[in-house]
TrEMBL record:
It comes from Strongylus vulgaris (Blood worm). Keywords: Membrane, Transmembrane, Transmembrane helix. This is PLOD1-3-like GT domain-containing protein. Residues 18-146 form the PLOD1-3-like GT domain. It comes from the Eukaryota. The keyword RNA-binding does not apply. One of its GO terms (cellular component) is endoplasmic reticulum. One of its GO terms (molecular function) is procollagen-lysine 5-dioxygenase activity.
């Protein structure tokens, strides 16, 4: 649990642009997945299949073993101290694109490694819906009112990739 007395090394926070995102679990499960599936990462961004806002950067992205490979700045979580380091690397004008700012940091291999930035390529925590609504199937349990969300492209993942949402 977060208190104002926690050292910044232990504070995890996130940002979610909510209009096109599905949470894949509740807060405690998300933190557990962050620690389990992304060991050694201090900052995690969601991933998407589109290279935006500068498509010319697509060849510069590292290949991923599975899933989406382009950074989505609307979905992130990480340790406050490390995120602060990332956002203070240089001045950013109010009218600059945040996705491009984070993309350039991620594409710099030294910065990516130093800041321990990862991408959730297989939607273990974040599922962006922009342009991929066919990848997601939602079923409702009429008895409990719970929603079951299945990530169709990742059906072969362990059962933990099928998520139930509380009412």
């Amino acid at each position: 649990m977060f208190t104002s007395k926690e050292p910044l090394e232990k504070v995890v926070f996130g940002n979610i642009v909510i209009y096109d995102v599905v949470f894949t679990a509740g807060p405690l499960a998300i933190l557990e997945r962050f620690e389990t599936h992304f060991p050694g990462k201090r900052i995690l961004f969601g991933a998407e299949g589109y290279c935006w806002p500068d498509e010319s950067l697509a060849p510069d992205y590292p290949l991923v073993g599975f899933g989406k490979r382009f950074l989505n700045s609307g979905l992130f979580l990480g340790y406050a101290k490390d995120f602060y380091k990332m956002i203070t690397l240089r001045k950013v004008a109010d009218d600059e694109d945040d996705q491009l700012y984070y993309t350039k940091i991620y594409l710099d291999e030294k910065l990516r490694n130093d800041l321990k930035i990862g991408l959730d390529s297989a939607s273990r925590i974040f599922q962006n819906l922009n342009g991929v609504t066919d990848d997601v199937e939602v079923q409702f349990d009429e008895d409990t009112g719970e929603a079951l969300v299945r990530l169709c492209n990742y059906f072969h993942l362990p059962k933990s990739s099928i998520f139930t949402f509380e009412k």
